[in-house]
Write a structure and sequence with these properties.
Length: 136
């Protein structure tokens, strides 16, 4: 968490499966500005076009951050913004829509090592849940 932001990650039962929920308050005070949940993830098959996730939340805007083994600094990632749907929805995010952040390295999907859901950059209450994560 950044600065004075506060958040929690918990496992919840939802839609007949276990999901992971991020909730909290994003604050910009004390150089803050984010809460996040992250997980290590295996690289996709060669034919994969993107990431698919079951998502539900409060309608706020969040980021998906992908990290690859090419990145060495904490703030580096490949980012894609999305709005968390109010009802459980299978969402697809194409690799081509992810933008590099604080890196000039080209995105190489075969080197993906971590995925994160991040509430970032403005004051708001975060509440987003993630069910299954896969590649499509």
């Amino acid at each position: 968490m950044g600065g004075l932001s506060a958040g929690a990650v918990e496992r919840v039962d939802a839609v007949g499966t276990t999901a992971t929920r991020l909730n909290g308050c994003v604050s910009l005070e004390n150089n803050g500005g984010f809460v996040q949940m992250v997980a290590d993830i295996a690289p996709p098959p060669a034919a994969a076009k993107g990431v698919a996730m079951m998502l539900a939340g409060n309608g706020e805007t969040y980021n998906i951050h992908l990290r690859t083994t090419d990145l060495s600094r904490p703030l580096q990632s490949y980012r894609h913004e999305f709005s968390a749907p109010a009802q459980w929805t299978l969402c697809h995010f194409a690799f081509g829509d992810f933008k590099p952040h604080r890196t000039e390295k080209l995105f190489d999907k075969s080197r993906i090592s971590r995925i994160g859901i991040v509430a970032i950059g403005r004051v708001f209450d975060a509440d987003v849940s993630v069910g299954n994560v896969s590649y499509y």
